[in-house]
Structures
1.
Amino acid sequence: MAGRIGVFVCECKGQVTGTIDVVRVAAAARALPDVEFAEQVDMLCGEADLGVAVRRLRDRGCDRMLFAGCSPRSSLKFPEERIARVMGGLGQPDALFEVANIREQCAWQHADRDLATRKAVDLVRMAHARLLTLEPPPEPVPLPGRALVVGGGPAGLQAAKDLDAVGVDVTLVERRPWLGGRLCQLLRVYQSEGWPSVCDSSCVGPVQCKGVLLSERIQAYTRARVTAVERVDGRFRVTIAAAPEHVDPARCISCGECARVCPEETPRLADEGLSRRKAIDKEFERALPDSYSIVEEACTRCGACVPACPTQAIDLERAPRRFTVDYGAVFLAAGVDALDLAAYPQYLRSHPNVVSGIEFEQIMARGFKRPSDGGVPEQVVFVQCAGSRAGPDKEVGGVPYCSKTCCAVTVKQVDRMAAANPAIEATVVYYRDMRTYERALESLYQNLRNVGIEFVNGEVTGIEGAGDGRLALQVAPYVPGEAGEEPEPLRLEADLVVLAAAQEPARGSAELFRMFGAGTDRHGFPIENQPRLFRPTESLVNRVFVVGESTGPKAVQQCAEQGSAAAMRALPELLAGRTLPPRFASRIDPRRCITCRVCETVCPHGAIRITEEGACSDPAFCQACGLCAAACPVHAAELRNFSDRQILAQAEVAFRELPAGEPRILAMLCYWCSYSAADFAGVERVKAPANYRVIRMRCSSSVNTGLVLEMFRMGADGILVAGCPEKSCHHLWGNFLADKRTDLARALLSQLGVEPGRLRFEYIGAPMQAKLMTALRDMDKKLRQLGPNPAARAAGGA
Amino acid sequence: MAAKVKIAMTWAAACGGCDVALLDLEAKLLELTRIADLVYWPVALDFKRRNLAALPDGGLDIGLYNGAVRTSEQEEDALLLRRKARLLVACGSCACFGGVPGLANLSDREGIFAVAYGSTPSTENPEGVAPEPRCSVNGNERTLPEFHDTVKSLAQVVPVDAFLPGCPPPGERLEDLAGIVARFAATGEAPPRGAVLASDKALCDECPRNGSRKGGRVSEFKRPHQLLADPEVCFLEQGLICMGIATRGGCGLSCIRANMPCRGCFGPTAQALDPAAEALSALGSIAGDANENDVPAHVMKRAVQSIRDLAGTCYRFTLPVALLNRAVRDVPAEKSP
């Protein structure tokens, strides 16, 4: 497996030579096994210099390059991504490289020329040790170029349409009988946060849905759901169950003859049960698909509708449909549901004149009628944060977060009501603040204040029936800045109360996210992949996109944005019909695997699948964190190019040049944050002890306890493990697992009489070089007091 | 038929359970005597050490060393048996890994004597008499074997041909050993050097409860006395530390069937860097609820803190073969004695 290695030691136009004797470094490199040549160059990153270097490698038949110079992670001129491109130009499929970071982490950090040169030689040895055993990345994995969209609301529709536009086949699955989702339940929707106008859903709903239904590449199923998912070889093997198609949509002309003769009634979904529909019916006039459908639970199979249909479209014998298809990418647009406020008796949700915001949309559509008696309401009170922003200051419970869209929806509703029927008195009770953000929404709110709509700052702590369909609301007013004396409760009267209910993940979406392996936060919303800034809509699982309100309450326009954004992110792999697994993808040896499922438990990316032969890591889902490899109790799981053997090979040679008596400090730094922090120390020319050596890990959690003990045995005097800051690990909880495991290892060392301070874990972000340097200096100081690690002495003397 | 195979079994730092396990073979032991002569077995037969010593070097076919090496006498026995036996087998967990006596490595001779001959509640020893290699009784010099600071496994003293783990080795594995004896008698064929008479895989692989593991996290680790374990469900799933994740299988699952989690007597698998580290890597990874991003550090760490006595739990049978095989004193250089 060993190749022919060419070594370049870069002087960086004097920036390295200032502290490091590169001639000595190159000479040491030349003496290493399999090294064809090792030479110093004054610069490598210029295009012309690179051309020369590549020719040199090619002429000497080298398939591997060891570059000693700037940081592969932080160099702005010659980062590892650029080196990879250069190596690609070598014309050898398996050309591999390794970098000895002798600039940021050596020349720029150490003042003593001899110690810095010694460290540089060690860094070259460490890089060389890795290079000897480096293996090429796994093969590309073919993927189906087909996508699945779960949820037919604005986000799902947009994703489907955008994929269709570039020729991708799409299956769209919607749980309800119509497409368009919540959009179709809102009478009018505000166009954007920036533009003060609205659209009517009876117009935009069908326009958006038509595009999907008319496409030959999109198969849309309403009253359908995902029942099973297998993640196999990078693809999603999805089983979809759809309700029986008793009414043939190709024949149905939506004339309504069937509904006229149908004797059975059931609550209408589209208006949240405010009215009833027939067992065979259409949810609303403008609904698409333009076909009647049967509510299975309500139909008695009396058969009356069959002869009534003028087009013979009805067949009551049709069976449910179930099919399994492989997809290359999945878009989860499961939406939100309103928090069930029946659980909070203070809101008297059972009273007919206490309605939710979405029910009020339907009331608006029907000309503002009170549900209790059909009369026109006189006093409507809108209650904000009903079940949102629950906390110690709030009397009524619910979810702790802001549901974001309610304030805007409320001002839109009040505006509409005031325009349609100025005689109705409107009062808005808001909790602490109105959150009508951006240009259009804030101006709408200010307009309402200007025309005299009453806004009361306080919490509705109770609603009581006051007879004759009337209601009395108890409000605890909030007077900012006045602590101490409780203000008197207010009493408001109303004959219609609109609760702006909190939004939570749609019912059933927890199971959906679970089936696809997409981790969720404590509120049930899917967690986006790190770095979230630049990977919106990506769940923790490759090619599972989370869009629309399923990632949190959103305006319609934002849902559409997410649908488009996700489609774009999915396209490269869908169009290529393949994915490239990471260079460091993990693998599990079935001969060792004992199916203890520890790997599955810790994998944040859904890459582990349990098979008859044991656990299997799917390279096309693997994100190369190594959490499985470090947690595996039998070393069946291994990270390619980050095996224990390779890491120990680095540790073995890490201190060859360090003068005797100097404490040996190994810093196991995570690939992203902590390794960068070590670079940043150099960039800022901070002086560090020259007796530490960095091993770049994939994640702090790819350091297993055995490695730590073995490194102590090999003679390390101190080991620092560092990972990303809290809540910022690229692998969700890798840093926390490493922290916990470090605690266990420290406790074990302590029982064995080893000073636990020899092992340390820190959360260190890229800019936190000061924290890293403090930790290293502390360790250096402590280790000088302690003297050599007795574990090495004891093991050596045994 | 060729001459009978000559077998010897010693008794070193061990409880005697291995001898009993051998006796428990009952009729099979008698069958074994058709092809083998038991020439030395202190617990069962009246041969003396000098009988063993009298054999020519290599004159014994199979030597079974039972127990860890903690005294000078046991070390001499190990050397003697190695010299005499063509095939030396470490018999039982103590010989293989140091076993329970190996936990003495958490202390040292001085510490052990201080407790055993001093501080235990039942000890009455005002003169502070403790064992010494040499002493004089009524003018006669008496000797005792020297008590080492560090307990060792057999392989740390002499090269070992085969390992038979178990505390004690279960009947099935002893029958494997009998098979080796028979093969050796018939053909002279020995197992590959360093063979372990156990599964190459960890115990989970053959555990009947394996299917009940759901792959969830463990909120709190408990000790076996703290709950009545469900007899069907994976112990880890119930929050009980089970060393079956990091211990060779082949033991016959007698603990698991008795509703006790594996304690690790079959020792680490071949891949293990260290017998405890592998279990700690796994336990530390699944400890705690999957809510680390939402809770403060002290809550996040509650589950790992519920794992008590890591060395005693994870090195119960294996401390002498651990990476750091005994407790050390890590004190600042100037304070070092």
Note: The longest helix of chain A spans residues 113-133.
2.
Amino acid sequence: MNLESLINPPSLRHPQSRRAFVEACARMAFGTTVLPLLAPSTALAQGTARGRGFGSARHIIFLQLRGGMSHIDTFDPKSGSSKGPRGAVSAKGGMQLSEFLPQTARVSDRIAVVRSMSAKVGVHAAAQYLIRTGYEQRGTVQHPCLGAWAQHYLGASTKSLPSSVCINHNSAHGNGFFAPGLSPLPILDPDSGLQHATSEAGIPVLEKRLGLVKDVDRVFREKYPDENVRAYNEFYDATLQLMKSSELKAFDLTQEPAKVRESYGNSKFGRGCLLARRLVQHGVRYVEVSSGNWDMHTGLEDRMEEVGGEFDRGFAALLEDLTATGLLKNTLVVVATEFGRKPAFDGSGRGHYPKAFSTVLAGAGIKRGFVYGATDEQGAEVVEGEMSVGNLHATIGWAAGLPIEQIVMSPSERPFTVGNKSKPVLDLFA
Amino acid sequence: MKFPPHLWRPLVLASVFLGVFPAYGKEKNKNRRQPEAGPSQAVQAPEPEEPKLDRWRSWSDAEGRKLEAEYRGLNGDQLEVRARDGKTYKLSLSKLVAADREYALKLQKQLPPPLHEAAARIDALVLEGLTKAGKKPNPPLGDEQFVRRVYLDLAGRIPTATEASAFLTDKREGKRERLVDALLEGPGYNSQMFNWLADMLRIMDDYGKGVRTYLYEEWVKEQLTLNRPWDRFVRDLMTAEGRLSDTGQVGYLLRDRGMPLDNLSNTLTTFLGANVACAQCHNHPLAPWTEKDFYGMAAFFGATDTTYVKATGMAKRMAKTTDVDKGTLLRILAPNLAEVETIGSVTTKLPEDYKYSDGKPGDAVAPSLIAWGEKDRENGAYQGIKTDSPALLRQQFAKWMTHPENPRFATAISNRLWKKLFGLGVQEPVTDLDDLTKASNPELLAGLSDLMRRVRFDLKEFQRVLVNTQAYQRQASVTPDPSKGPYLFPGPVLRRMSAEQTWDSVLALVVGNAVDGFRLQRADWVREVDLEGAVTQEAVVAKARELSEGTTGKRKGRQGRKGDTSVESDYGDYPPPKVDGLILARASELQQPSKEAHFLRMFGQSDRQVADSNSVEGGIPQVLMLMNGDVQKVISGERSQVLKDAAKEKTPEKQIESFYFSFLGRRPSILEREYARKLLGSGLKLSDLAWVMFNTREFMFIQ
């Protein structure tokens, strides 16, 4: 199978071909044995109108703040009637940030803040789905996350590690309508790393057993030269390769110096950020890191100190670490959340507010110390540069060098693109 | 291990309750609602189902000779029966006593066509398709492959070593047919059918905010035990009315709380193969459906309210004004508030962004039925459909949808069951049957639909016919390449076991066939909080008191449960073993769906968000689990039945043979014995060999 047909299999246009589609995806997922490593991105770039920022991100770290981050108490502080428990401080890069983010304020000359996000979905699960996939949730189709899109177009990003990983939450169908192989590998606890990756028996015994598996299976495999059987043969080879891989230590946080570990803070989110950096360093393309408990209807002040503080520390440490290791040049860091929170502060907390919220991008050719778009004095309406979740996805896809205008037909014969046909916001790129 | 008595319970249940069943739930509903005026009058008593006649009878002829035997079919004057010993006899109808003659004729009317005749007809259609294309069928299937395939397809797991060898050493004639009959009546049949339905219907335990669907799940299982015909089963889902605390079948409509359009979209694709998902938002570019068509269908559900009040807020408020804790309040309130209600008028309107000339945004929509061709409207399904009474709209919709002459209802379920047994639908995808000429063999699909109607939507009987075809009993093909033309079924397609089949097979290895006996029984947890009348604070507090006074015995301890994990007391008096935190009960008797990190999910069990999303794809985390995971440890661990069985054997040869029977349902070849001996000779143990067998492709795939 040649590259062209893998990227846009002609058979996708025919309803009978789900099998072919899935198989093509499985091979993409499993590109190590089928595709020359990283070659596809250059092949893809040909014939695609390149522009500012296109393909600048070799890696994406997607930080998800679950529950809905209050924009007013973080990246879009207000001094009027909607002011929260804390005020604003002047941060590096000439922007104002909430006092809740002292660490971020030190490194904000490396980030671009988007204050003009707007959406219609104000329910947690649905908004979480939207921010993760760029599509509104439907009962009839599952949309892929950006990591799956990237792997669909670009193939695998490393020889022996998965191309997408999600940390602190399950993969929640991240492959969407693509083959399950494109689903991010879930790491539920950054401290324990990859599950079942070591064998109690040891690799030599394992190899002996696998040798016998081949013997026992010989007749069966000869009788059924089946693509799915072969896929399993390849998965076994890849898994053994992974188990033997020196890259496996990418999942092991104990390998980090104590000082580095400390800088990220002693939280699950901070640890997740550190793991993300390690994975990116080892070639993983797409890493999601989740932070929970942002649904601050009550007790906002305390919880911003706690949850917001963990985020602040982890995020700032990540940016500094990526800068120090030189990875920030080709790693796009995104801070995304479900929605904003209501301008009306009742003294304790704020309700859901999808009409206006903030997001942050950094690294990989993104402008530094930049504020894009604005809300009004209360933080209630977007008054400049409105950006949809689709725009955000298209922008990330653009940075990752994906053909965002290309239509992929799902197995149910419906057309989809990265970012739901939205335009990337090129103004964000330097 | 004790032999759990409910291994035989389904059979007894089935015979005792047949014909009585539909009253359950509705009866109580009626009592509760009688004082109220309005919609409750709309609930019609379901049509009575004919009592099923027993196939077994002592047949007598005019000369007084008697033969106790099972009815198999009637062809003209020839009555075919089968005696207990498995022998078939052909009796002359005219020589029987009058009562038996009448009985046989009645049975003929009620029962499907004789098995072999029906199977032969399907075989002819398959062969015709192959011959036309100049293709040949695959060679017939050997007994070893047959026993494994048929156990997996009909009992949902591999046979145990004892079961496999019992079949293989059976020298009597007709043993395949007998095995099929036994499996269809066994507990494994219901279990695997539940898994199959759960994927199709997106069955899940937890609808959020304290709402648990245990009663719905129990209802589905009961229907399977009773082998309730598909048309009646679906009709009940469509017309259900009541609460999740008293009427399980409302679980289907409540699955998409307050999203009737999504629910309908799933209903039409699942039960009719109508490709309408696009028409929900815009006219379909390829399929014949317009947005208006979709809304016309939606109007049948326009007088139905599934937007029940979430219990969390109310529980919070009541916790402040009563002395009942929030957890108990939520447990009582949630299922009682989760309700399908019929309201007085149709509320369906065209959406705000409606952009076609045949209507304006906000226009009221009248109920109207879709048709695939103009001739469709002349058939029986479309006759006498009344749309004037809002309260009766769902009944009318269900009447149309489940009518034997509905242009797609029988076809959709036939195609799905064919796919279940043959690995691919005659038409793919099974969710798009709008253009039936796209089927790989349209005549076969028509023949299957015809068979479905003739067996009166009896899914068990339908599968009995299919499994008895030569087409099914042929060797498997590798996954067909769609670019080489349609797949015409020279044999079933080689499949990887489903997640549930894999898990249940693991259990057969570890626990043996006793695993079929563990039953999840959680419905009482919901049923016992049912408030008979209105949901008032007084009623809730009274119920809470009733619960705390301990009348509920050991269930009391479960009040604090989250409801998302099964606990041992959920299994009545026969709890399954628990090893390393794994509950060793079959997939159908565990949380629905399992947690993401569970073996079942890693192997592709659907998350039940999207219909039909069980997957048989592999992946690195899955293989890591196969090689190093907990399940692997359980199989090669001390309490593993398969290891105990092998350890009992005295020679390495016999031990190896025992493993082959257990894992692969066959004897090892001479060469394979040699390989295994080589392994055991090289310092590896029996547990290593168990590891090896478990990690073979032959184990994971169904030939």
Note: Chain B has four domains: 6-48+193-401, 56-110, 134-190+410-495, 499-595.
